[in-house]
Amino acid sequence: MNKLISIFKKEILDNVRDRRSLFFAVFYGPVLLPLIIAVSMFGSYKQFAIDFEEISELPVINAELAPNLVDFLFKNNIDVITAPDNYEQALRDSDIEVVLKIEQDYGEKLAAGKPAPLTLYSNDADKESGKAARKITTMLNAYERTIDSLRMQTRGIDPDIFNSIAIDEVDVSDGGLAGQMISSLFPFLLIMSMVTGGFYLAIDTTAGERERNSLEPLLSLPIKRELLVFGKYLALVFFITISAVLTVITLSIVFKFMPTEVFAGTLHFDPLTLFIGLLLASPLILLIGSLLMSVAAFTRSTKEAQTYLGILMVLPMAPFFLLQFMNIKSANVIMLMPMMSQYKLLEKAAKNETIESMHLLLSFAGTLGAAALLLMLAFWLYRQDRILQ
Q1: Residue 224 and residue 383: Cα distance in Å, rounded?
Q2: What is the enclosing helix (H) or strand (E) of 120?
Q3: Contact indicator for 98, 132 with CB cutoff of 8 Å
Q4: What order of strands is seen across the sheet that includes strand 98-102?
Q5: CATH 3.40.1710.10 fits 56-160, yes or no
Q6: How many Cα atoms occupy the beta-carbon half-sphere of 355 within 13 Å?
């Protein structure tokens, strides 16, 4: 036991001295990556979400030709102002977002019961302009429906005569498509931080020590190679755990300041849910550690190890993208699959759904079984003479 503890301490100290390994273990994956994703997600929400309660200004040409329309816009939090003479250049320069032009024959055609012409100018290259154009278009469509209804009523026609079927759509999902993507984001960030947390330590424990010529003296000590590997493995698991815990702490802080609308209103990212998510994903700590350990032992140089482990970074990303494009149900066979089962479990936790005990058992069994097999592979690789070549 003392030998195992000595190996464990040695690997921990070596990793602490390596600034690159420490950076990825305690800062990049657990802190920087969640912040980047959270800020970009919030920015995207702010970019596409339209706040109809917000008071905004709309430059209009010939506003005097449509007083009723101007009044309708005013009642819907849109203040009409006079458009500049060089409005097209102003739009290109992003000085204004949209311009509404009321054509000269607007009133004449409206009175004749014909389509009254309006022209909405925007700059699609400017995201704010596109957002403003969508808001104004929505308002104009509402005004059009109001006029159509009034026209039919004045002619003695019930507007509902054209509504032969009343369709009421009810979405019983938790947040719809947006909720699906956001609920998958938590396991993605958590698993990615685990991988990055142990990435460079796994390289350093085998390929790095081989290149520094410190692995051969270590293997010549009167210690069983399985014990040596297990000591390195425990150090790797320790840093992966640190990365996972720091990620949960970072996410609990970040999500606390995020608007609830971003989570589609039905998702839960409170500290308790995140802690439960960490427990559900805990078998992955052992799996990722044994996976990184075995791959690093298989490679012959640091560059080769970086290449192979870099390719393995696709594994935590694959379930995230598959769940966005495929309807994968939580069947028993799916819950046996490492990483995919954790994605499904953490999604259920975020949606506050009941997790079946069988699914939980299958997820733990499949992941821990794969971790044990990979760890035995690492033991076997360390027993081979090629480990020193």
Answers
A1: 10
A2: strand 118-122
A3: yes
A4: 78-82, 56-61, 98-102, 118-122
A5: yes
A6: 23
Answer yes or no: are the C-beta atoms of 175 and 264 closer than 8 Å.
yes
- Tens-place pLDDT, residues 301-324: 777 777 777 777 777 777 777 776
Distance CA 52, CA 132 (A): 10
Q: How confident is the model at residue 352 (pLDDT cuts 50, 70, 90)?
A: confident
Count of residues in the chain: 389
Is the alpha carbon torsion for 88, 90, 96, 102 positive or negative? Answer: negative
Distance CA 262, CA 42 (A): 7
Which tokens belong to 350?
Answer: 């975020």
CA distances 161 to 4, 147, 156, Å, are 82, 16, 11
**For the chain, what are the domain ranges?**
2-46+174-388, 56-160
pTM of the model: 0.68
For residue 100, name the pLDDT band (cuts at 50, 70, 90).
very high
C-beta neighbour count of 242 within 10 angstroms = 16
Q: What torsion do the CA atoms of 261, 262, 268, 272 make, to the nearest 10 degrees?
A: -120
Beta pairing class for 98-102 and 118-122: antiparallel
